[in-house]
Amino acid sequence: MPRKKKYQWGFDLTYFNSPTTFKKILKKFKLKKYLREQPYGKKYGTYYQYTWSNPNLKIITGNNPLTGIYAQPKQRQKEKGYASYIGIEGSKKDVLKLKNEIRKRAKYIKDESPRRREFI
Fold first, then answer.
1. What stretches of 1-119 show up as alpha helix (H) in DSSP?
2. What is the mean pLDDT of the chain?
3. Three-state DSSP class for 38?
4. Could you tell me if 33 and 52 are in contact, meaning their C-beta atoms sit under 8 angstroms apart?
């Protein structure tokens, strides 16, 4: 049986006022954190994506809004509350709820990509 395709949403350059704001989102959606390391070419060295998930939903950020650590830690100073790029995937219902919560709580969002994770 083929796997059901996950629904997606993306945000570009997203800033939450503080780490506490992002923590509230994680708590509301019962998302747990793990860090995944990815190769990003020799020029830039290690590249990180920060991922929080539950069985039905996943949020991926380029910057860790809780600690302020950037995807490429040596490229930028820490900036707490800044998520940078955000990708969401999971069930359509859950993705849309999380998308609305991010819109409601973010202080700044540069752009969005409906129905796809265009930015990360």
1. 19-28, 92-105
2. 88
3. strand
4. yes
Predicted local confidence at residue 47, as pLDDT: 77
At residue 37, the pLDDT reads 62
Domain ranges within the chain, ordered by starting residue: 1-49+75-86+108-112
Query: Sheet containing 7-16: which strands, arranged edge to edge?
Result: 32-39, 46-54, 57-61, 82-90, 7-16, 106-114
pTM score, whole prediction: 0.87
Nearest to 101 by CA among 25, 26, 47, 16: 25
Longest dimension (CA), the chain: 46
Distances (CA, A) of 42 to 39, 45, 84: 8, 5, 22
Residue range 72-89, pLDDT digits in tens: 878 888 999 999 999 999
Question: What stretch of H or E contains 107?
Answer: strand 106-114
Q: What angle do CA 85, 77, 14 make, to 5 degrees?
A: 25
Specify whether the CB–CB gap between 23 and 96 falls below 8 A.
no
Q: Which residues pair with 56 in a beta bridge?
A: none
